[in-house]
Structure formats: structure tokens, C-alpha cells
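Q: Hi! First time doing this. I have a protein sequence and I read that you can turn it into a structure. Is that right? Here it is:
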Amino acid sequence: MRTRGIAFLLALVPALLLFPLGLHHFYLGYHARGVLTLLALGLGFVLAVIGIILAFGNGAFNAALVAAAVLVYGVEIWQIVDAVRILLNKLKPKNGEYYPRFFQTRPVASAPR
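A: Yes, that's right. Below is the predicted 3D structure, encoded as C-alpha cells:
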């Protein structure tokens, strides 16, 4: 079982820091989505570097910077949407449910009888 609070923080904090890594996907068990997020972010970074190099070369508008911005901001929006979905309990762990409390990390021991 996973904690909804930790998943929420893993989705929102990197998005607010403008470096969306998709860590919440790995935490929730959606590894393919996490790899897709990292690949999109990496491709956006490569396109940004290419765009900057081309911009210094001729100073003209280039599509590489636009494509990089679309990729990175698309992943940004995806993470913020996922953070809201986690809060609303619409995005659940792949193999189960969340713990009942928001930041509960282990089952509550029952009282002895």
C-alpha cells in the first residue's frame, strides 16, 4: 500500500520547481509512465540545447526551442493534473489502494484485547 500524501508531494513539488521528473509514477507503480516522463523531459532538454545553439548561430526563430517548451510545459501540466487526481483519489497505486490516512506509512497496530 502507498501513501497518498507522499504521492501528492512527489507529483506537485517537482512540478512547482519547474523540473518534473514523474517520480510519483514510479512510486505508484506506473513505471512505463515514469520512463515516458523522463524521456520527454530529456528530449525537451536536448531540443532546448539545439535551439540555443542554432539561435546563436543565425539569430532567427527556430522550431527546436518551441518544441522544447511544448514538451517541458506539457509534462509540467501533466504532473499538476496528476497531483489533483491524487488529491481527489482518482489516481491510485497500480496494485492496490492507499492507506486510509493521508501520510500514513504503515498499518496501525490493533490494540491488544
